[in-house]
Amino acid sequence: MEKDKPLAGTVTLVAGATRGAGRGIATELGAAGAIVYVTGRSTRAIRSDMDRPETIEDTAEQVTAAGGQGIPVPCDHSDPAQVAALITRITGAHDRLDLLVNDIWGGDPLSEWGTPFWQLDLTKFQTMWQRAVLTHLITSQHVAPVMIAQKRGLIIEVTDGLGHDYRGNLAYDLTKTTVNRLALGQAEELRPHGITALAVTPGFLRSEAMLELFGVTEDNWRDGAEKDPHFIASETPHFVGRVIAALAADPEVHTRTGQVLSSWDLAEEYRIDDVDGRRPHWGRYFATI
């Protein structure tokens, strides 16, 4: 195994890798040499109801360009039959699956920031729950038997927040906190089988949608702090991708099973910088404000 390709030959699935954190994670796993199955509902042929331009094919090409092997597979992870077919395809080609990253979200158009819980649209909340929680469980249900049979594997739940602080909206808070508990529950039940499950949160994520919201590009992103001063502490999707790649390559990752970890703390531990050479620390910044 090459030193700069610690995940060479590792078979991975990044569920929800069309854009944002999922794209950054998939690309950085590719940079570490992994075979990365990239899934989502947005393709060059059909846009999902998110109605954004990013596609799974674009992500897969970025994975390959980074040094891995990107394989795009359209999949609606709320449909167990589609997930089953996906896992059958992966195991049929490689006879194993080493890493699952559950990053499905799709809740941006459903979030009702500033709305008290007694005025929330429960239909929107139900859809958010189905997209951002049940999809993770459905995918893990189909992956777990594969990992149990091979007596090893790593499942990473991508969340938002460590679960200690209220996220300002009850629907959002319940959804993201449940993802943390999903990691814990999987860890406890998979522990006897030698499988690790944990959660990782990024900080203020500078995703494609967030750059558009602030009217900036990655080249001049600091100008976004004029609209929101906290944007100066943001991080690119590659930052959480790099720490997840480091976790996946860590031979002692099993000691973290059940934990909720952060991009900023892992970056300090693994001495990882963002693509712009910074090492943002959202936890430290948040504590000061």
UniProtKB/TrEMBL annotation:
Gene3D superfamilies: NAD(P)-binding Rossmann-like Domain. Transmembrane segments: none annotated. This is Short-chain dehydrogenase. It comes from Actinoplanes awajinensis subsp. mycoplanecinus.
